[in-house]
Amino acid sequence: MNLEADSTSFLGLRPLPARSRGSGDGASTKNGFLGFELRPSLRTKLLMAFLAIEMLLVSVGVIGLLSLREADQRANQVVGLQQKIEAYRQMQHNTLRQLYGVSTALAFPNETTLAVVLRQINQFGYDLDRVSFVAKDEVALLNQVREEYARFIAVVSHIVDLIRGGRAAEAKQSEFAELGPLADKLERLTNQLVNRAEADMVAGIDASRQTYVKSQILVAAVALVSFVLTLVLGHAISRSVIDPVRIIHDGLNRIAAGDFAQRIEVPNRDELGELAAHVNSTCDELQQLYRSLEEASRHKSQFLANMSHELRTPLNAVLGFSELLLDGIYGDPPEKMRSALERIQRNGRHLLGLINDVLDLSKIEAGQLRLSLADYSVEELVNVVHTSVEPLAADKNLSLRIAVPAGLPPARGDERRLAQALFNLVGNAIKFTDRGEVRIEVEAGVDSYVFSVQDTGPGIDEADQARIFQEFQQVDNSITKAKGGAGLGLAIVKRIVEMHGGQIWIESRLGHGARFSFLVPARLEQQATQT
Amino acid sequence: MSKRVLVVEDQEDNRQILRDLLASVGYEMIEAHDGEGALAVARAQSPDLILMDIQLPILDGYEATRRIKAQSDLRHIPIIVVTSYALGGDEEKARAAGCDAYVAKPYSARKLLETINRYLT
């Protein structure tokens, strides 16, 4: 394993991919350094941020510990100074007691008072050791003190000897001439020491207070900086996550809406950047797929349009000749032949209708159908349809009613196509209704007309209502099977209505008939764009 | 003298239907199989009426109609255009080319005859 490669990947440095991945990556190579580019992953970013916060916390702790240590040192210092002062005072006290002891021994020279003086001398040695232990730094003064003490003790010893020898006057003389001045000198020296120690102590306490204030400020400052840094880092991280997520989300919405040309651009070079690149490449694939599907669909429609045209030519001849035969052009046909010719005519026209439906739909789908817009009379349009379906209704003993408001102003649209739409709806209604009536109604709205066809047929189940406007879809039941049909009529109606910028809907309940309605603008000046 | 109708139609079966139909009412039928032929026959025989199919080889019905109507000595001949099943726009195109009437396939022989009679009686 290559250690170097390993460490670079940990830092988020990755070798540039040999092949540029998408157009968005082209710019990034500018930021590359010696063939590497900085691509911190999301994980690395988060890790870094938490590490930074962690380091701040640790530094606050370290600063606190250092301040504590300093405070502890100061406290120790103060304690040491106090001990020093105490030791000095003890020495002063001892000197005094020694002076008293000597005075007492001179006043009452006996073994008891002398013993007190001698014990005091021992105590001196002990106190001297203690002072030299607690005040190692005061070498010069201490040596002086030590010398003076040695002298003081020597004088005391001498006085004790004099008292023992009964030379009280000499002893008194010695006390007065030597011991007093020595004690004074010692007191001055120890006072000097005490003063110094006290001054040190005051300085120490002062420094300690300053240290406290300083560390307070430092901790507060570091805490404040951490707070701000945490906010900034949190904001930066969440921005670098939330913003691209939102951009990708919007992009996906646009893709879902069918916009394949767009590209999602996020500044991230991390997982989210990769995700965006992925979405982009998927979008490209979708676009290609969509185009090929569109093309296939166009080819299909073109094929159907051509095919149905080819089918119609011979069929027209069949219909033409059978009509001439029926009309007696070639001589009066016998009754049996007439009936057969009528069947040829009927079936031929049915076949032609189916072929025309396929042609219509495929032409609409291939985008070849153009509306021819002109002024028309709604009343006349309904009458034309009525006339052509009347025989069908009469054959089934259905009553056919019309309700059109009188005096409607001229409308504008493709009259022939709208008539075809209405015809298909009425034709269906008659086809599926066995008794009762079929009503054709027109309602004039604001800038629009609603054409409705109401029947008393079997009705359409709610689940089927959504499907019936799709091509080749029929309500699948025994009734439709018996009635036949290719299921193209409603799809054509829907397309015609949509090309007029209108809409179509159905209201029906199983067993309670159906009402198909379509709304078209009263005056259409321009064909609606197909979606 | 019987009226002469020029039928411009490339499909023999369709011509036969019209032949039989026109003969049954005593019209004489002359034929052309494409747009160019229609121009030549119209000029040579000056028929009383032209029945013009739209989908024709060489020169389509619209163009043939336009050319005939562009000539002063032929302009008076009524032209009935027969389109195949129309999807909108055909009628406008036919009118724009200058035809007098317009019949969409599939036509009923009887109705076509009615239209023809309108121009010949």
UniProtKB/TrEMBL annotation, chain B:
GO annotation, biological process: phosphorelay signal transduction system
Pfam families: Response_reg
Entry keywords, A to Z: Phosphoprotein, Two-component regulatory system
Keyword Heme set for record: no
Keyword Isomerase among UniProt keywords: no
InterPro entries: CheY-like_superfamily, Sig_transdc_resp-reg_receiver
Modified residues (4-aspartylphosphate): D53
Gene3D superfamilies on file: 3.40.50.2300
Domain Response regulatory: 4-120
PANTHER family, per database record: HYBRID SIGNAL TRANSDUCTION HISTIDINE KINASE J
Record's protein name: Response regulator
Organism classification: Bacteria, Pseudomonadati, Pseudomonadota, Alphaproteobacteria, Hyphomicrobiales
